[in-house]
Amino acid sequence: MVNFGFGIILLLSQLLTLGGGLPQVMEANYSDDAIEAGAGGEVVVSFDVLDGYVINRVPAIQLKLQPVEGLTHDAAKLESPPEDPKSTDDYYVDVPAFNVAVEAAVAGEYEIPGELVYFFCSKSDGFCSRQIVDVVVPVTAE
């Protein structure tokens, strides 16, 4: 029981120390193709995962985007599918990308603020956690 208590204290001290905390496990990438103003297009949001970590299929990866003046999009909340044909366990082999349909009334540079929510696990020690990350999806309309 004492060892368990020391383990909890050690874990909390590592997570709460100055400069500590959870690593940024998954990074979002955005397609940089311009969309046609008035006609719209699509921004693809894909992901890179740090070596040594895996992304859970359930619960789903969520991308929640906020409204932006002058721009419409279909992504108030997107969720990843739980299926991955290559997977034999609870984790993605290929982390799915999100296709965000966008339309800008006029040409310009836009930024869609949002939030990325996902669950990950460390392969080396089995530690798993939920991560919430602020994102900004860039959109160029010509």
Q: How many E-type strands?
A: 9
Largest sheet at a glance?
A: 5 strands, antiparallel
Distance between the termini: 64 Å
- Identify the overall geometry: elongated
- Provide the β-strand percentage band: 35-45%
Radius of gyration: 18 Å
- What low-confidence regions span 5 or more consecutive residues with pLDDT below 50? 5-19
Run of helices and strands: HEEEEEEEEE
Mean residue pLDDT: 87
Enumerate how many helices there are, as a single number: 1
What percent of the residues sit in helical stretches (DSSP H or I)?
Answer: 10-25%
**What structural class do the secondary elements suggest?**
mainly beta
Describe the structure.
By secondary structure, the protein is mainly β. The chain has 1 helix and 9 strands. Strands 3, 4, 6, 8 and 9 form a 5-stranded antiparallel beta sheet that branches. The chain has a 4-stranded antiparallel beta sheet with strand order 1-2-7-5, with no helix packed on it. Strand 8 and strand 9 form a beta hairpin. The longest helix has 15 residues, at 2-16. It is elongated.
